[in-house]
């Protein structure tokens, strides 16, 4: 298959390596001519994947028209804030029948659209060819061939299975899922919770607090997801709890590392400068709080993180406010239909 990967960050480069290894003719597009030159001449992408050797068969270009020429599959792997611009600017060169895959975990900051919606805005009528690629996956591990699982979520089973076939190999297993909304929300919203877990770590809190944030964070994700038409089962799978776990616990997680620095009292601009790459949880927090308000969904953890990020609230105060909230009933918040009748009457 002839495949174009748009975006030469860590994840785009890692996916391109997988596709080349699986025998696909793969072209990696980067904005910067200097990065393209490094990939071509040195076989490296040092800033995003230090210490990793790229396959010789991987082509690279900064010319989008060249990258997309004859593509049977286009994989968008750019920051969510740039997605609309890239999709719109490149749409004229995308072959009409190409599969449109994205591996971007976030929202459009201006419109709060999910990434599949951004693609469809530029490619109306292409829903059957759109696929969201998500799941618990750090580029650093995929690039080194460590065992990883992903989810290909698409409206069309045939599209999901074509993406599955293109990517699967001995170390990368891909599952299909028809719930595009749930898969995209799980991938975007878990970054917010990872910020919160990082903040807790930076404050010196222990495993109890981190487990509570992850679990109650998953409840928030599920509540918003159900309100937006997603299946609750999706959040119990790889693109839900699986992605949440890896992002909240790994040294590779930018969101966790950013949160830890915030918990240590560092200001947001300084934190983002130190991380040196996009921290999707920051823009996702703003979008999620506003989307939740539109749907009348409570997301207290996300709201607390929003206050820390954008309203100058101290992290310790945000935690105190969360702990002092009105008492709640766990199961009732997640799945009211599972509550025994005698509990419902009490």
TrEMBL record:
Localization: Cytoplasm
Binding-site residues for NADPH, renumbered to this chain: 10-11, 31-32, 48, 105, 139, 254, 278, 280
One example of a Gene Ontology biological process annotation: phospholipid biosynthetic process
Chain positions recorded as NAD(+) binding sites: 7-12, 139, 254
Enzyme class: oxidoreductase
Pathway named in the protein's UniProt entry: Membrane lipid metabolism; glycerophospholipid metabolism
Broad class of where this protein is predominantly found: cytoplasm
Reaction equation(s) it catalyzes: sn-glycerol 3-phosphate + NAD(+) = dihydroxyacetone phosphate + NADH + H(+); sn-glycerol 3-phosphate + NADP(+) = dihydroxyacetone phosphate + NADPH + H(+)
Keywords, sorted A to Z: Cytoplasm, Lipid biosynthesis, Lipid metabolism, NAD, NADP, Nucleotide-binding, Oxidoreductase, Phospholipid biosynthesis, Phospholipid metabolism
PROSITE patterns xrefs: NAD_G3PDH
Residues the entry annotates as binding substrate: 105, 254-255
Domain named Glycerol-3-phosphate dehydrogenase NAD-dependent N-terminal: residues: 3-159
Entry annotated with the keyword Nucleotide-binding: yes
Cross-referenced SUPFAM superfamilies: 6-phosphogluconate dehydrogenase C-terminal domain-like (SSF48179), NAD(P)-binding Rossmann-fold domains (SSF51735)
Gene3D superfamilies per record: N-(1-d-carboxylethyl)-l-norvaline Dehydrogenase, domain 2 (1.10.1040.10), NAD(P)-binding Rossmann-like Domain (3.40.50.720)
Protein name according to UniProt: Glycerol-3-phosphate dehydrogenase [NAD(P)+]
